[in-house]
Design brief:
By secondary structure, the chain is of the alpha/beta class. It folds into 2 domains: 247 residues, P-loop containing nucleotide triphosphate hydrolases (Rossmann fold, 3-Layer(aba) Sandwich); 60 residues, Alpha-Beta Plaits. It contains 11 helices and 13 strands. It has a 6-stranded mixed sheet, sandwiched between helices. Bound molecules: adenosine-5'-triphosphate (ATP). Adenosine-5'-triphosphate binds next to strand 1, strand 2 and helix 2. It comes from Sandaracinus amylolyticus.
């Protein structure tokens, strides 16, 4: 994809925050009223990427990596310290009406629904703000409520809804104006597994039906695996990977995970030759085996051990990601020395 075809373009984006240090003690506090020491936090430290229309990209990184800051900048809520950002040809920070009509930012940790009123009232408010024609509005609300199986819940006061029901209504409120670009920051946080799946499927359908572009952050790797073929990995404001999720997993963890069950307890020493032992408790063992040796090692296990059950899996994505983040930190620490 050339930069000119891209719908979202980010070039060398930096965002710094100036933070006042809080000194302890009354005297220090009084003094700091006049001369407050400040430090600079480099939340985003020179990142570049671009997205084509309709793409779904996951934004991964540990806490404080700079994900929310990047999304807020793309949505026009924060001004970049330097660098360039374009979303469908617009400079987000100008917050032009035509730009605002095209985008939405959903933050799982914040809500826009009015607490004491039913969600439909917030939908109505957004209809007015975005000047959505009545018939289109009604069609959208009906379709989205059906997709999310909300029924008449949208007419109950928000405070009476469960977390999952509220999150679904948040999504509808954010989509009343049928945006083409979705920035979703932890949209499934706090939801149970069934609800996560429902929201995920809904987002997927919206993406397909509207050819909407999507950037998603989530601590639930299942969300990312289900929705985002491509991922960006950010740590300490710097991008360390931009590419296919599968490829990332292969790079970080070229091993397959083999779960073995035996008809009787097996000695640890008998397992050593198979690979890296992740777990071992007598009649059960979990072993990481290099991908290229998988066939040979599995045959060996079957020949030499009383195997009654064998399953080949991959390490959970959560584990792969925390290993990646730990590695990046370590490399950077060594680099800094
Ligand atoms: N308004 C602000 N003022 C000062 N520092 C900020 C501000 N917003 C964010 N930061 C700092 O910038 C860094 C990046 O924060 P950001 O919220 O973008 O991270 P994140 O990747 O979204 O993290 P998480 O996964 O925890 O939500 C953090 O060190 C954070 O403390």
């Amino acid at each position: 994809m050339s930069m000119s075809d891209a719908q979202i373009v980010v070039r060398d984006l930096r965002k710094e925050f100036r933070v006042h240090q809080r000194a302890a003690g009354l005297l220090a506090a009084t003094r700091s009223l006049f001369r407050r020491p400040t430090t600079i936090v480099k939340a985003v430290d020179g990142i570049s990427f671009s997205l084509a229309r309709g793409e779904r990209v996951g934004f991964l990184g540990p806490n404080g990596a700079g994900k929310t800051t990047t999304l807020k900048t793309l949505a026009g809520l924060l001004h970049p310290t330097s660098g360039e950002v374009r979303v469908d040809g617009h400079v987000p920070q100008k917050r032009e009406v035509r730009f605002l009509e095209k985008v939405t930012l959903v933050m799982g940790q914040k809500q826009q629904l009015l607490w004491d009123l039913p969600p439909v009232e917030t939908f109505e408010l957004n209809r007015a703000v975005y000047e959505v024609p009545r018939t289109r509005f009604e069609k959208t609300v009906r379709e989205l409520s059906e997709l999310l199986e909300l029924g008449d819940l949208v007419k109950k006061p928000t405070r009476e809804l469960s977390l999952g029901e509220r999150m679904k209504c948040e999504l509808i409120a954010a989509l009343i104006h049928e945006p083409k670009v979705l920035f979703l920051d932890e949209p499934t946080i706090g939801l149970d597994v069934a609800m996560q799946v429902a929201v995920r499927e809904f987002v997927r359908r919206y993406n397909q039906e509207h050819e909407a572009t999507l950037i998603l952050t989530s601590h639930y790797m299942d969300d990312v695996a289900a929705l985002c073929p491509r991922v960006l990995v950010i740590d300490k404001g710097v991008l360390s990977y931009d590419g296919a999720l599968d490829e990332l997993v292969r790079r970080v963890r070229p091993e397959k995970r083999v779960v073995l069950r035996f008809s009787r307890a097996v000695e640890r020493g008998d397992l050593d030759a198979l690979g890296k032992i992740v777990e071992h408790a007598g009649e059960r063992a979990v072993i990481d085996v290099p991908q290229q040796d998988l066939g040979a090692r599995v045959s060996r296990a079957l020949e030499t051990l009383p195997v009654i059950d064998l399953e080949v899996t991959s390490a959970p994505l959560e584990e792969v990601m925390s290993e990646l983040f730990a590695r990046t930190r370590k490399e950077r620490a060594e680099h800094a020395r």
